[in-house]
Amino acid sequence: MADRKTKCLVVGGGPVGALAALYAAKRGWEVEVYDLRRDLRDDSTTPLNFTKSINLALSQRGVNAMRESGADGLLDSVLADTIPMYGRMVHGEDSKGSLTEESQLYDVHGRYQRAVDRGALNKTLLDHLEGLPNVNLIFHHKLTGADFNKKKAWFERKGSDKSSDRPKEVEVSFDIILGCDGAHSSVRYHMMKYVRMDYEQSYIDTLWCEFTIPPADSSDTTATTASAKDGFRTSPNHLHIWPTPNDMFIAIPSIDRTFTCTLFAPSATFAELSAHPESIESFFRTSFPGAADLIGPDLQTQFQQNPHLPLISIKCSPHHYTASGVILGDAAHAMVPFYGQGMNAGLEDVRVLFSHFDSHPTTPAGRAAALEAYSTERVPDAHTINDLAMGNYWEMHAGVRSTWYLLRKRVEEF
Ligand code: FAD
Questions:
Q1: Element of type H or E holding 155
Q2: Which atom of ligand 1 sits closest to the CA of residue 61?
Q3: For ligand 1, is residue 11 a contact (CB within 6 Å)?
Q4: Contacts of 45 (CB under 8 A, 6+ apart)
Q5: Pair 172, 317: CB distance under 8 Å
Q6: Mean of the pLDDT values across residues 81-100?
Q7: What is the model's pLDDT at position 396?
């Protein structure tokens, strides 16, 4: 017998939650999306953890997941605001102290990754959800508890909404929760009380801080590299890397001709630079040749004003509980960002999950079997991509320069 209309709570309206809601809506489910933040499309909302938004590498994994959502025009509108990155541009200095750039293409056939603004991608996904009759977007609500047997969840209303006469806590019933609430997932925390979930969390001794390279200024040609073009201070079609044995600086292009950059360095380096801000510029000049000039005079201010954030890696198993809950995206497998696949893998989770729903009956028993099959398939994949991300840290900050790497490249080219 067919299930009645499935009531689905999506907790977290980030990229993964918004895509999951689109997939659920397409199947006729009654969907409610809850996010603790205000609506991202309200310009006054500061993205969680970021000063504006970060640029991410969108790969085929993420593209395929959006394509298969069935949402009209979604992929076209997302791709319209992306920039192709055909390879890495490794920046350095030769023995005479002149700046060098080495383009290392990702693919001999010209395939590429795309630079995408996380906030813009998220907004596009929310826009596609907005008009759907079976979707309700509820912002400023934080999940505080869930009973996965009685199928009830509790949300705290946040911010100015609190002052109204409405109750501060709301109780919502559900058939299934899709937990897409990020690395510090509340859904995962509550689900752990019901399922024997193995859980592993680690922080690496590396912090990150965001910087911005402004667009090229026609009156100043000194702060550009040889590959600069189209109003960008360096090549817009590469992911730029300044590798060193201990630190790394990267830059990803944005459609406004800026670059969103990230400094990755050990916590001790951050502590040293924070204690001696006058040394920030010389640290950059020594470690990342050319980067200080690309950023410009507010390099020190950017380091001091932008947050210094940790990097977490999470593995857990299983990712679901019976027919009533499943975690996706960073909630299930937050990873260090060095493989550029965190969000992409989260979007792929959605595609894989719904392929299992589609191949099982639309009953609670069918849903439980689909979730079981999903965890069985997805947990090993999530662990593997997590390990690859950790391994790619070495590749990006040291491997791109090592003799072994260069030798391997020569052999590949031969
Ligand atoms: P999130 O983006 O964390 O969204 C979770 C949502 O849940 C948020 O909106 C939050 O407000 C909401 N929420 C949290 N708790 C609750 C609650 N209790 N109740 C209700 N709502 C809640 N990935 C890539 O694919 N490519 C890259 O190039 C890349 N680069 C990165 C660079 C850096 C420096 C970092 C830090 C990450 C990078 N990532 C990259 C990873 C990527 O940012 C994440 O994997 C992605 O944002 C995860 O999406 P998500 O929707 O699962 O979680």
A1: strand 152-157
A2: 25
A3: yes
A4: 37, 38, 39
A5: no
A6: 95
A7: 67
Q: Choose one of 330, 338, 390, 396 to mutate for the ligand 1 pocket test, by most ligand atoms within 8 angstroms of C-beta.
A: 330
How many residues are recorded in the chain? 414
Question: Between the CA of residue 212 and those of 101, 242, 252, 308, what are the distances in Å?
Answer: 20, 15, 10, 15
Q: What is the DSSP string of 24-86?
A: HHHTT-EEEEEESSPPTTSTTPPPTTSSS--EEEE-HHHHHHHHTT--TTHHHHHHHT-EEE-
| CATH superfamily ID and name for 84-115+203-309 | FAD/NAD(P)-binding domain (3.50.50.60)
Name the residue at shortest CA distance from atom 26 of ligand 1: 340
Task: Give the model's confidence band at 408: pLDDT under 50 very low, under 70 low, under 90 confident, else very high.
Answer: low
330 lines ligand 1 (CB under 6 A): yes
Q: Which two tokens stand for residue 227?
A: 């590959």
How far is residue 244's CA from residue 250's CA, in Å, rounded to a whole number? 11
ipTM surpassing 0.85? yes
Q: What is the pTM of this model?
A: 0.93
Ligand 1 neighbourhood includes 119 CB (under 6 angstroms): no
- Are 187 and 296 in contact by the 8 Å Cβ rule? The answer is no
Q: State in Å: Cα 403 to ligand 1 middle.
A: 35
Domain 7-82+118-201+313-396 belongs to what topology?
FAD/NAD(P)-binding domain (3.50.50)
Q: What is the pLDDT of residues 23-46, one digit of tens each?
A: 999 999 999 999 999 888 875 555
Q: What is the pLDDT of residues 103-138, one digit of tens each?
A: 999 999 999 999 999 999 999 999 999 989 999 999
